[in-house]
Amino acid sequence: MRISANLGLLWTHLDLPDAIAAAAAAGFDAVECHWPYAIPAADLRAVLDRAGMELLSLNTAPGGAGEFGLTALPGREHEARAAFDTALAYAVQARVPMIHVMAGISTAPEALDVFANTLECCCRAAAAHGVTLLIEPINRHDVPGYALSDPDVAVRLITGLGAPNLRIMADCYHLARMGHDVPAMLARLGKLIGHVQIAGVPARNEPDRGTLDPAAVLAALARVGYRGAIGAEYRPSDPQEPDLRWLGALRRAD
Fold first, then answer.
1. Residue 38: how many other CB atoms lie within 10 Å
2. Assuming Cys at both sites, which of 51, 122, 194, 210 could form a disulfide with 201, CB separation 3.0 to 4.6 Å?
3. What single string gives the DSSP state of each residue in 34-66?
4. What pTM was computed for the model?
5. What does the alpha-carbon distance between residue 104 and residue 81 come to, in Å, rounded to a whole number?
């Protein structure tokens, strides 16, 4: 199983090209990031090729301060679609296979309907380029008011839309912080999982610290036939010199 470094939280003191090189040198198989848009897509592709790395995913724009995405915000549909079009164009040029479509912070009763309607259009556009879209249930301890926090709601959105290129970002940290039994939830999500992320619970530090058992996560993923990568999206205890002993242990547990 491939393990990717999420450069939104790892090596954040480096610029993105240097962070990619650091991840490659540390033994990661791939990288993922949140918002690479400051670097032209063709330039980023060249950086990735030199490092022998793949960029697995990127996010749609977070919007303004305190919004955490635009796609579920009533009245912001045109901005959300424009943000998605930017993300898709970038992903196609940089050869990024997945886009995390950020819902945003909204407690409006129509937020999920807005989210679903925009996702439907986005799925059609992405399918033409072979790009998979991810939606991520995010816990409301960390992001109060996030429009999508319940994984069962994510399942209903995906099954309701019926788009084969719409999948769940199963972030084990967020699932655990919402009180779910993570291996059991992964079993329930099954074939709807498009990508997996891990971190220690509850501090979101190294994946081998806290209450989440990475070996149990791997076992659950094996049972549902997941063959994608696992993204390390955690805040290292030492941001400049991350302790990566967990990486070897996770490989041995696979």
1. 8
2. 210
3. S--TTS-HHHHHHHHHHHT--B-EEE----STT
4. 0.96
5. 13
CA separation for the pair 178, 180 (Å, rounded): 6
Q: Report yes or no: 137 and 151 within 8 Å, Cβ to Cβ.
A: yes
Residue 253: pLDDT over 80: no
Residue of 77, 110, 120, 233 marked catalytic: 233
pLDDT of 251 reads 85
54 is catalytic: no
Rounded distance between C-alpha atoms, residue 133 and residue 149, angstroms: 17
Domains of the chain, first to last? 3-253 (3.20.20.150)
Our answer to whether residue 77 is catalytic in this structure is no
For tokens 């945003």, what's the residue?
104
Active-site annotation holder among 54, 77, 136, 206: 136
